[in-house]
Amino acid sequence: PDLPKLDLGLTIACFALFFCDTALFVRNEGIHVAGELALYMAITAVAIAGCRVTAKQVGLRLGTKEALKAPRNLRKFGDQSWQLVVHLLMTAYEVLLLNRNGWLWWTDTRTLWTQPWQTSGECPADLRSLYIAQLAIWFVTAFSHKFVEAKHNDYFVMYGHHVATLGLVSLSYFNGWQPIGLSTLFVHDSSDIIVDTLKMVNYLGYDAKSGTFLAEIFFALNLVTWFLFRMYFFISKVIRSTIPKDFFFPGWGDYDLPAPLVSPQNACRVLLVVLSLMHLYWYGLFLRILVRLIRGTAGHEAGREYEGSSDSEPVLGLVREGTDLKPSTLVPFGRSRLDRVNDIHGRIMQKDAEYM
Description:
It is built from 13 helices and no strands.
């Protein structure tokens, strides 16, 4: 593909969403709501900066000597920390909102489209606050991805993910589909907690080589939670509820309102499918890493392709800086699993750090 044009297209789409959302807020709810979005974005930017500084100090005290040999590990630990804080706070708020209606939106997806306030356009204040906060966070994240952060191998996949998410959040808010949006946000934010923790313990050097095995434990947990939330729940709860009733299978689908081919409903369906394909792509990279760990063969190729599940960083020390880099060789047959895992950290190509 023409990457410069793709980059430009994604950037234009991101700015277009920002200005369209601002204009719609002003038209539908008043200029004070657009100001609220700007305030949330400013608070997010300040909180990110403060979290990075604080996390770096924590990393200095908790990181292993090997991990601290490379300054970038500490910087990445700080960068990842604010995302963990965001995902923890957003998940807690989303659980609170789901719990207020007895998790009915989660257990009976038919109720996602039958709320009396959906036709009036008067979104409950607590749900509205969640949306304003999420839009602010995602706009700041997208702009940071484009203009601040270093470019990684999955730059375009991540940029597309940010734009698709912003499109979904915007469409669901302005069309009265906040309940389905809440479920979508919950699936993503809750599963990202394990991903963020995995990356952070990896940057601190808490892996098999240090004797803690924390990176390996969280990697195994991530294989389970990613599949459960991003692939099973995302399809069975979110995508299925947007399909017209009995469209594919009898009893499958909850949406029973007619819509033309070119419509916000179909735009949302397309974006949901795009996100689902991205989830599948990243899970495939996770499995490639797992296969190489089990076989005891060099895992750097998967580590270089996978530069973060949701926010573009590698896992399991496969590309972590400060590693003793040696040419790749096969692990001798009969070595223990611990030896094989430890040896992976010493068999990464010397140029891998350039991709960070």
